[in-house]
Amino acid sequence: MNRITIISLALLMLFAVSCTQEAATIVEDNYINEVISDTSYFPLDIGNEWIYDISYDTVNIHLKVIDSAYFNSLKYSVVLCENYQGKFAPVNLDTMYLRTTDGIKFYRYINGLERLYLDFSQDFTDSIKGIKYSVSIPENSYGIPTGVYSIPLGEFQDCKKIESIEVEPRIYISAKGIGMISFTWFKGKATLIYAKINGAEIGA
Fold it and tell me: Which of 30, 117, 120, 170 is the most exposed place for a label (fewest CB within 10 A)?
């Protein structure tokens, strides 16, 4: 094998390694919510929907923004919550009336009153129930806050964690532009398996 052949093989090997490293970098940065232009932590446009797998049951929870409504001259998004179980018809679990002005603070209208429902900017207290919540950025396995969170559907960036610090423990993980991707409470865990945000489908 002459010198030119050896050099050519070395260059090919170097090129192959470089391509592998570059591909790995692209995969690492390929977050699910990069394709979503919305910047809200709970996008409330009509037609948006989310389906969650429930760890302790055979049902799936389905959230969908179906309409808008006005209370005290304020506009709220109507969010329908249903469960699905095989061939059976969906069962309506709840209807929520939510509004936001910045995609960070969310208010819920219930029983004739508006209360602070979620705040992704800082620690807050439920203005009706009095439950306190802490807000933080999800950490990696080394305890470093990165804002990146992974579920079987994929890896998400710009995530926030909201955790109740009173009564029963509850942990919400929401990704910017997507909404809630994981919810843990005393019964088990709900994990996002499908979402449609402004026409873009995830997990289809």
Answer: 30
